[in-house]
Amino acid sequence: MDTKNILLVGVGGQGTILVSKILSTGLMDAGYDVKMSEIHGMAQRGGSVSTQVRYGEKIYSPIIGSGQADILVSFETMETMRWLEFLKPDGVVVVNDYEIPSAPILTGKADYPQGIIEMVSDKARTKVVNAADISEKLGNMKVMNVVLLGALVKMMNLTDIDWEKAVRASVKEKFADLNVKAFNAGMEAVS
């Protein structure tokens, strides 16, 4: 089996690291060798966060280089452009249609760029997921990340893994049912 490279990007507080941990748990339980790395940047201040998950028969390094990601999952629209160069020419983008204005935008020193999803769609096979609407319908905006995990699993055709077990092992028990619903809703969003 070829090594697969998954790049998850977002803004601090969006739960990209939790998703990477659930993803790694599920893949390891399924027998893959998995390596994960995380880059926080100014995450605690709403800055950029990226996590890289590589899996296959034998993985030696957790790092994904430029032009090597099979799939880019962007939890925030603008982050998609920042990380697009890491996508393989035939790679896939899953983008959350959700905007979090950065500090320069909030202070009026910059405008939120328009047309990002269109630009990304011109450059790569793109699946847009409105995880905010889906998680709002589930009653909790904090599960947007797990909605995107469900979309990722469906897009990567990893549906034969026991993801419910991985989700339940990674979140607090009182939030487990909600997160499983969010995961399933994310899978349905890309069917």
TrEMBL record:
- A Pfam family the protein falls into: POR
List the SUPFAM superfamilies.
Pyruvate-ferredoxin oxidoreductase, PFOR, domain III
Q: Does the keyword Metal-binding apply?
A: no
> What domain of life?
Bacteria
**Alphabetic keyword roster:** Oxidoreductase, Pyruvate
Note the InterPro entries from the entry: IorB_Oxidoreductase, Pyrv/ketoisovalerate_OxRed_cat, Pyrv_flavodox_OxRed_cen
- The chain positions of domain Pyruvate/ketoisovalerate oxidoreductase catalytic read 12-188
Q: Does the keyword field hold Metal-binding?
A: no
Listed GO MF terms: oxidoreductase activity, acting on the aldehyde or oxo group of donors
Name the UniProt record assigns to this protein:
Indolepyruvate ferredoxin oxidoreductase beta subunit
Q: From what organism does this protein derive?
A: Sedimentibacter saalensis
